[in-house]
Amino acid sequence: MQNNLTQEQIENIQIDYGLVYLNYGETDQKKLGPTRGGAEFSATKNIRDIAYDGTLGKTKGMQVIDEINAVLKVSILDTSLATIASMMPQADYDSVNGIITNTTGGLIGNTKYFTNVTMFGKTTGGEYKKITLYNAMNESDFVLKAAAKSEGEVGLEIHAHWDPLDQSDLYSIEDVTSISDDTTKPTVTTTPLDVATGVSTTANLTALFSEDVRSSDITTDNFILIKASDGSIVAGSIVYNSSTKTATFDSTSNLTDASAYIWTIARVRDNAGNVMNPVVVNFTTA
User: Fold this and answer.
1) Three-state DSSP class for residue 68
2) Helix (H) or strand (E) holding 11
3) Is this model's pTM higher than 0.85 or not?
């Protein structure tokens, strides 16, 4: 029996508690804490088996994922009103008078959702597992117990939520070398520029970023060229040059003369994990 471990396996053992941030990488980034008992992330799914006559049981190719959910459980000791209110979608917070009151119910507003809630767990190799929940909101009931010789502790159950206007990621798990204080999002300058006319039908499209971005994000899923007249997606390839911080899109065939196109760029992150604001470029060919 082989009992030896590889160096990679050893370096990926998680050994430390989770650090949790609200809106990590945003201008209002805030560390959530102090916490007690670390943090627990779970990604769950509902699988439905397609039943048919003669089946012998669970069958490959006959299963459907109906639902995906992501939850982060953590207990905090910070009982400041601002922190408590941010974790209560059923509450209104008057910061001037320092008071939390209940809402009247109804549809939960977008301001109650965090852009992200992010957890970091340190490994023996000195790097971190970074787990991010998007459009995150606490859905646990607020309970604060006061007891002798014990600290007040608030248990949170933070759920990720799909955005009906942008069917992007629910959560992400990645390896990062450090926890950065960089909160500046990358910006991009495109060629052609927005509302440009007379663009050559054989020219490549380029996106120059303000800083180095992750090459794994330079994909045709994040750089989409659409022909405006029929909404069709233009096939092509995209490459990234890290030395010039430039992504170049090369369409498989020439663009159509005197036609309108829409180029969308989104979900590109810098090395600190900050996500760019989506960009839409409208242009017309010569």
Assistant:
1) strand
2) helix 7-11
3) no
